[in-house]
Specification:
alpha/beta; TIM Barrel; 5-stranded parallel β-sheet; 14% strand; Aldlse_KDPG_KHG; Aldolase_TIM; lyase; Ketohydroxyglutarate aldolase; carbohydrate metabolism
C-alpha cells in the first residue's frame, strides 16, 4: 500500500488504539476495535513479542485493520517493524535514523516532540504527524490550540487521556488523529467494541457538525 493510502486510512479512522499486551490479548483488542469501527492500532515494541503480535493480527484480520509499530526509538527497531509489514511507525521521541527509514520505505512516521522547534524540525525532515509528548496529555486540548495558532499546518496526533467523553474537545482544538490507550484496551473484546463504537460516534458527530 502506498504512503498516501496509509495516511488516508489513518485520517479516515481519526483514532488508533495504543496497545501494550501479549499477542493473544492484542488479537482480542484488534477484533474489538475493528468491530467498533476503529480499524487502526499501534502495537508497542515495549513488549519483546511485539513482532509475533503484529504477525498474528495480520494473519487473522488481514486488510480489515492497519497495524503500526509503537515505541520505535531507533533504527534497529524500525527495521524489524518494517520487516513485519507495519503500516506506520510511532514513537515518543524523534530519531533521525527512524525518519530516514520511514522516508526510504514510504511509511508514515509519528514522532514525539516536546517543543515547537523540535516539532518543526521533525516536520521538515518528513514526519507525517507530530505527537506533542508528554505535554499534550498533561496540559489538555488548550495546548493544541496554542500550537496550532501560529503553525496551523502542523499535523498533530494526540495520545494520552483520550476517551469518548473528551475526544471531541481534542478535535475542536485542532488534532488530526488521536491515539487511545486504556479506553480501547480494557475489558472483553465485546466491551472494547462498545468503547470503540462510542468513540467512533463522537468523531463522526464532530465531523458532521464541522461540515
Amino acid at each position: 500500500m502506498k504512503k498516501f493510502d496509509l495516511i488516508q486510512r489513518i485520517l479516515a479512522s481519526g483514532a488508533l488504539a495504543v496497545v501494550r499486551a501479549k499477542p493473544k490479548r492484542v488479537l482480542e483488542i484488534a477484533e474489538g476495535i475493528v468491530g467498533g469501527g476503529i480499524p487502526v492500532m499501534e502495537i508497542s515494541y515495549t513488549n519483546s513479542d511485539a513482532p509475533e503480535a503484529i504477525d498474528l493480527v495480520h494473519q487473522r484480520l488481514g486488510d480489515r485493520i492497519l497495524v503500526g509499530a509503537g515505541t520505535v526509538n531507533n533504527g534497529a527497531t524500525a527495521k524489524d517493524a518494517i520487516s513485519h509489514g507495519v503500516g506506520f511507525l510511532y514513537s515518543p521521541i524523534f530519531d533521525q535514523e527512524v525518519m530516514s527509514l520511514a522516508n526510504e520505505y514510504q511509511i508514515p512516521y509519528a514522532p514525539g516532540c516536546s517543543t515547537v522547534t523540535e516539532a518543526v524540525h521533525a516536520m521538515r525532515a518528513g514526519a507525517t504527524f507530530i505527537k506533542y509528548f508528554p505535554y499534550g496529555g498533561l496540559l489538555g486540548p488548550d495546548i493544541i490550540k496554542t500550537i496550532k495558532t501560529p503553525i496551523p499546518e502542523m499535523p498533530l496526533l494526540e495520545s494520552g487521556g483520550v476517551d469518548a467523553s473528551n475526544v471531541q474537545q481534542w478535535f475542536k482544538a485542532g488534532v488530526d488523529v488521536v491515539g487511545i490507550g486504556s479506553a480501547l484496551s480494557k475489558g472483553t473484546s465485546q466491551e472494547i467494541e462498545a468503547s470503540a463504537q462510542a468513540i467512533r460516534q463522537e468523531i463522526d458527530a464532530f465531523r458532521s457538525a464541522a461540515k
